[in-house]
Amino acid sequence: MNRPAWKKLRLTACSVAFSVWGIASAVAQPFTPIEGEGLSDRAGRKVSIDELPPCPPALTEILDRSNVTFRVGGLRPSIIRPSRSTGSVDQKFDAETQFRLRYSFNSRCRWKMVGDRPRRRMKVDVTFDQIELVVEHTVWLRSLPPIESFWRSPLVLHEFDHLRLSSDRRLKALFERKVRSHQSTVLSEAETRQLLEDDGVSSVSRLSLSSRVGGDHAKSWVGSVVQKEFDSVVELVEIRYAELDRVTQHGLRPVPVESELASWLTQDADE
């Protein structure tokens, strides 16, 4: 009986960074337009934290972890920087939160071909280091609420609920857990062949498959699975943003106490 021919393990490394933007919008009652809003001050005025009263303890931790910039006036972020949004671009909103998630990672990747000919497949073993998931926010306000009651403004508190969702520390833990689930994977023959097709090789015989697959293909696979897990985390945030705006009608109503969303927000506040 012939033993399968194993290729020497090869070592590759990669460091990758990627980012994506998402948006949620809110309305105040009644709508309060700003005179003279135009392209000359597209992004509005940046509001320094020093201009505001001291942030109450209940919001300080969210503020610290959210990496947030407040802006007032000008155009909404979804108009200046269009992206997937829970609100309509044509609808009038008095506030909007835009989040940006980005990730980076380092990896050391070993690969080899396994299985008997002609059905050989790629086995990839990956060591992931320094998996990072970072969030940034812009909270835009059409007009500034009264300074003395800024942190009590229903509009501001609604935007802080959005900040709480997208800056939740559990997102990073979830992302890291998803990524590390791919530390040792045997690709199917079809997946191995797809790597070559993605690299521009249109037709590869089964007998030549193992000779055509290399370290660059292993790195490409690692990058694709990390991107897929990142996309799933972004989608989760978008779903929660949309649910928050749906149940509150973009901030016009409180979060129902018995709702799953309220439970999620409370869990985060307690941790």
Task: Explain the overall architecture.
By secondary structure, the protein is α/β, with parallel strands linked by helices. The chain has one domain. Helix content is 36%, strand content 26%. It is built from 8 helices and 7 strands, in the order ββαβαβββααβαααα. It has helices at residues 57-66, 77-80, 154-166, 169-180, 189-198, 209-212, 215-248, 260-270, and strands at residues 10-26, 45-47, 68-72, 84-85, 95-114, 121-141, 184-186. Strands 1, 2, 3, 4, 5, 6 and 7 form a 7-stranded mixed sheet that branches. Strand 5 (95-114) and strand 6 form a beta hairpin. Helix 1 packs across helix 3. It is elongated. The model is unreliable at 1-18, 27-40 and 201-213 (pLDDT under 50).
Short summary:
The protein has 271 residues and is an alpha/beta fold. It is built from 8 helices and 7 strands, in the order ββαβαβββααβαααα.
Instruction: Give the topology string: H per helix, E per strand.
Output: EEHEHEEEHHEHHHH
Number of helices: 8
Structurally, how many domains make up the residues?
Answer: 1
Radius of gyration: 24 Å
Q: How does the helix and strand content classify structurally?
A: alpha/beta
Fraction of residues in H or I helices: 25-40%
Q: What is the arithmetic mean of pLDDT?
A: 75
Sheet of most strands: 7 strands, mixed
Distance between the termini: 58 Å
Global morphology: elongated
Strand content is 25-35%
Give start-end ranges of low-pLDDT stretches: 1-18, 27-40, 201-213
